[in-house]
Design brief:
By secondary structure, the protein is an alpha+beta fold. It contains three helices and five strands; from the N terminus they run H-H-H-E-E-E-E-E. It has one domain: Beta Barrel (OB fold (Dihydrolipoamide Acetyltransferase, E2P)).
């Protein structure tokens, strides 16, 4: 009898530990994160991508546009700083734009404008494109690992209780 209860306790403990570790998981695997060159600032990368060719960087931001080509997908990104969980911050600041190059097809309905991405990749060069009326040099990042953040649902801001004359409830 005690043996059965002890086994159940062990199973529950193992399940709780598994849930705890899953909740603490980061967006990018620790093995890949170790390869990131922490000394590379986005401003420097933006100024001279060739100086960092082949270096591994960790970047994040919001999707501006997803373009599918025959062999790869290009994701044009608006850079955002990352928080402690490697999630792009919601602040209204950016230091520029970059492009993630991903082998194969990514559906633009999923990888759509506004979605947040964290990526670890190697600096692969730059691509100059027209942005409004200027020529803009986008650093190209060859994807090693990419995390598309889930869409967060907005909170309902309407009150759940309505005050007035009389008796009633609101749902």
């Amino acid at each position: 009898m005690k043996s059965s209860g002890h086994k159940r306790l062990l199973v529950w403990t193992a399940l709780l530990n598994l849930l705890w570790f899953a909740a603490c998981a980061t967006a990018i695997s620790p093995e890949i994160t170790k390869e990131v060159d922490q000394g590379i600032l986005f401003e420097s990368l933006l100024t001279d991508p060739a100086a960092f060719h082949g270096k591994t960087v960790l970047l994040g931001g919001n999707i501006i546009k997803t373009e599918n080509l025959p062999e790869k997908t290009l994701i044009i990104m608006l850079q955002r700083s990352l928080d402690s969980k490697m999630k792009p911050s919601g602040e209204n600041r950016s230091k520029g734009r970059f492009i993630i190059s991903v082998p194969g097809f990514l559906d633009p309905a999923i990888y759509r404008q506004g979605r947040e991405i964290t990526v670890v990749g190697r600096v692969a060069g730059k691509e100059v494109r027209t942005l409004d009326e200027i020529e803009y040099a986008y650093p190209i990042i060859g994807k090693r690992e990419l995390y598309l953040w889930p869409v967060e649902k907005s909170l309902d801001t309407e009150p759940k209780v309505i005050f007035g004359i009389g008796v009633g409830t609101g749902f």
